[in-house]
């Protein structure tokens, strides 16, 4: 198992573990200087473990679990398994059955909450962060089908709407959206719902922390034709992460795989319309919605 410090990837699993261990330490009102002599390590070394700069050694983790009085078996198992798998990158969570691997469920909301800047590419519909509630509900029902129990539908919609709170956090998270014009012409929920969605996009684009660019239909081949994705630029020293959704579940990509998406997005920014021109285009589509969706 590659755990050498010089090869460590600052993986999401390691970040999750570090955050969790710091929370346990602070819950007991202990400083790094308090715990360092107990585990016979420099406090700066423990700080590096908590910041996921170095892998958490299992013997040190076990001692700290005892120091923090963590007796819950499930919590101890989660943290221990996280340490064992901290070198792993990338994650796939299936909608049915067990996840691809290991332990703690690192959900998208946890990752998004750690981002300083978010890039979203919408290929076939408006990205979830920028959707109105009716638009989101309509898409969710279309994806999940009528067999989805009512309470699960409500919870799913609520969870997706909660992610939009990132638009109004303090300090603000910078959000940049690239959307194919074809996605803005798709009459999700009908022309009235689409018009409301387009007007909502224009209002969001007026926020200082939100920027929207449209890819015109005249653009031919480009590096993101495989579908929508989200790039999350993490706070601090952590590398970007990419989030993908598909019918079978969700994926989080790191390191080289994430870097490919960053490069693709930067290329799209170069060929998309400017933010001001994109706003004008969205306004024009909303003003003549019947023509926009080619309704006769």
TrEMBL record:
Gene3D superfamilies in alphabetical order: lambda repressor-like DNA-binding domains (1.10.260.40)
Source taxon at top rank: Bacteria
A molecular function GO annotation: DNA binding
Boundaries of every DUF5753 domain copy: 107-283
Pfam families: DUF5753, HTH_31
Full protein name: Transcriptional regulator
